[in-house]
Amino acid sequence: MLDLNRTLLHGTWIWMGTLLLAAAPAAAQVVVADAGDDLKIECTANGGAPATLDGLGSTVDGASAALDPNTSFSWTATGITFVDPTSPTPSATFPLGKT
Prior knowledge:
Largest sheet: 3 strands, antiparallel
Helix content: under 10%
Order of helices and strands: EEEEEEE
Strand content: 25-35%
Number of helices: 0
Radius of gyration: 28 Å
């Protein structure tokens, strides 16, 4: 609340009003999630095949998302446990078949 007092020639005029300050809305950002090329990996063991995914091509306003401190990664796939799902290049073991 902003209170302003003004003195006039014949008395005091009091004006009370409200001043609202707001930050300008953030500019829209262009975010491109790029998970890299499709991978075809040969499964040579019963437990599945290890693979490393590549999100380094992801960008925020044309710059690397991996270098942006305000950007985070979150990799998920049904039945898959990633070593570090918040890394731009996580690794995991994938079962036989298509994931």
